[in-house]
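step: validate -> pass
step: tokenize input -> pass
step: predict -> running
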Amino acid sequence: MHHTWHSSFRLFEDSALADYTDKFINFLALALILFIGFGAASASTLMWETILKYLHPTSFGNSDPIFQKDIGFYVFQLLFYEAIWNWLLFAFLWGLIVSILVYFLKESFTLRRRNGRNTLNGKAKSHLSWLFAAIAGLVAVDFWLKRFSLLYSTNGVVYGAG
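step: predict -> pass
step: emit ->
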């Protein structure tokens, strides 16, 4: 909303509700923020045990043969890193969805024709590009974290490091 403060929302333009558009959208934005916040908080409350395990790890004294990590890494730390990754991906995806919605409703998300090519507005383009770059970075981190899953399996008769 900071990048689009100069323009108002283009909603209910031809009706008697046009004067209340900004108040309605601000109320809707507040409701959406509260919904997303409570959803993130309720998902995070289940992670208290994982956080405690991460804060107080114990060494097992044995290392895995491939990555030379202590077995305690898989039990205490890897789950925490995956939980942080899930939380960040959730935050960035919702940030992208809300940003696109705000840019679209304020008509800042319009295509401009320049030199035979369509381009986005400058601030919208840079903001959305940073969000997409952050999501791409999170996907790269996910690939890095998934490599440890080669040695840790939840399938089969035995659960844990195999």
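step: describe -> Residues 2-161 form one domain.
step: cleanup -> pass
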